[in-house]
Amino acid sequence: MLSCLQNDEPLEELLESLSRGFEMGLKARCLIAQKLEDGWDRPLAQWRQELDLPA
Fold first, then answer.
1. In a designed cystine with 9, which of 4, 14, 36, 49 is the match (CB 3.0 to 4.6 A)?
2. pLDDT at 39
3. Per-residue pLDDT of the chain (55 residues; tens, 9 = 90+)
4. Residues 6, 37: Cα–Cα separation, whole Å
5. Residue 55 domain-assigned (yes or no)
6. Which residue range is the domain that position 23 belongs to?
7. In whole angstroms, what is the distance from residue 30 CA to residue 36 CA?
8. CB–CB of 18/4 below 8 Å?
9. How far apart are alpha carbons 55 and 46 in whole angstroms?
C-alpha cells in the first residue's frame, strides 16, 4: 500500500483484493489450528472444501 502511495498508483484494486481476502478469512475455518503437514497427500480441493475456502 505504501508503494502505491509513493508511486502515485491507484489504490482501488489493492483495497478490493484486501477486502476480498479479509472476507474469505472470516468465512474460513481457523487455519492455524489445522495440522497441514499431516495431509500433504490430500488434494487441494479436499482441503478447500474442509476449511470452507473458495476454489
1. 4
2. 85
3. 778 777 888 888 889 999 999 998 888 888 888 888 888 999 999 988 988 888 7
4. 39
5. no
6. 2-50
7. 12
8. no
9. 10
The answer to whether position 14 is within a domain reads yes
- 9 vs 43: CA distance, rounded Å: 38
Residue 34 within a domain: yes
What is the tally of structural domains in the chain? 1
CA distance 17 to 15: 5
What pLDDT is attached to residue 2?
78
Closest Cα to residue 49, out of 19, 29, 25?
29
Count of residues making up the chain: 55
The one-character DSSP state at 40 is T
